[in-house]
Amino acid sequence: MLFNSFTFLLLFLPITYLVFWQLRTNTQRYLWLTLTGYVFYAAWNWRFCSLMLFSTAVSYLAGLGIVSSRTTRTRKLCLVIPVTVDLLLLGFFKYWNFTSDSLAHLSSWTGVHFPDSWLSVHIILPIGISFYTFHTISYIVDSYRGVITPTRNFFEFSCYVSLFCQLVAGPIVRFRQVEKDLANLDHASRGLNLTKAWSFFMIGMVKKVLIADSIAAIIDPGFANWKELSSLDAWLCAIGYTYQLYFDFSGYSDMAVGLGLMFGIQLPQNFRSPYKATSPSDFWGRWHISLSSVLRDYLYIPLGGNRGTQLCIYRNLMVTMLLGGLWHGASWTFVFWGGYHGVLLMAHRCWSGPWDRLPHVVKHTLMFLLVLVGWVFFRCTTFEMAFGILSSMFSFQAGALLLSNYVLLLLALLVATGIAFFAPNTFEMKHEWTPAQLFGLEAAMAVCLIVMLGGQASPFLYFQF
Length: 465
Description:
By secondary structure, the chain is mainly α. 70% of the residues lie in helices and 0% in strands. The protein has helices at residues 6-20, 26-45, 49-68, 72-110, 116-119, 129-145, 154-162, 175-183, 194-224, 231-262, 280-284, 289-303, 310-328, 332-350, 352-356, 360-379, 383-393, 406-422, 435-453.
């Protein structure tokens, strides 16, 4: 089920909202949000609800085991076993096909034969597994570290894991970030944040439907025929995807925040104007904040972080970014993209002095171009495609003009540039609209609905991760 679908807007959301506010106790509301989360998930594939339930139960019991354990050894077992189970489930469902394809290529190159049973099985990737797995792992680790006190209410925990507004594409929410809201759910005020909630939701919808999807409709044929792209079209496709990805994912995150507020839950900020970044480290403090902070706290710092020699720090950075790239998708292009950003972070750490002395506009422009080049690998399915597009971008290629509507694309890119570079992000807004501003927002939302009526709802890009 998609936020930008009429099934969600006219059926699922009204029922979920109206019933929720008729319930009075915490447990009733936990149970209802859990149930609606599973219904939301089952709309994609009901069979995988059991997988999420299993992961939820294992992590819930792990938390109880940690808090009740009397020996260090038992506490460590309650940490290691469930985290291993979660990672094995993620590894099997997300990376089996990637591993078997890699082995098949290795077999063709080396002549080494691998069992057909390894190479012929195709595994369906459960939607959202990367996100809810990180939810459960962070809960277990934080319980072990004493950062949180594990809840004894199973429905509170299951509500946290399966909360529909952040279930399939984040943000990655740590239990500590919503613990107080969940504990006080029976005292939540129905009207307190309703205006802000709808403001977030409508802004996110406009980002997704009017900006991201409009750009995608024009540039996708270009990527599909990448060998024939002219240099101009290659640049327009790369710039277009840079904005499409941002407005698609930040639009989803804004809608998730708005939906959370409707039910008395404040989800964390996931984007902080990332294209305003002036350095690689600044970019990762602004882009997909929930993921970058999880990678920092649960991988980079345990590896040693900024402690030790420069070589150790570079190793920690590269391992973190390679695994971050692999988390995004089971493909070597994603691994390369992660390594590319690892190199950028290392280079900035090594030459931060000269970089920081550059004029602000130069740093800003260079950083945007470096990020744009990285997104080419993120978008492309093969290295041949990625290097082919980059070759067209950085050498003169006459080619054919493949894009269908240059006027609409340039208009969309102009609007996207103005918002991404100069406008406040959604969390910086006060969400107190004048009548004229409110009318404009409502008109934009009406246009979104008209566009949705004219075609099939477009999935969010981060659903595949």
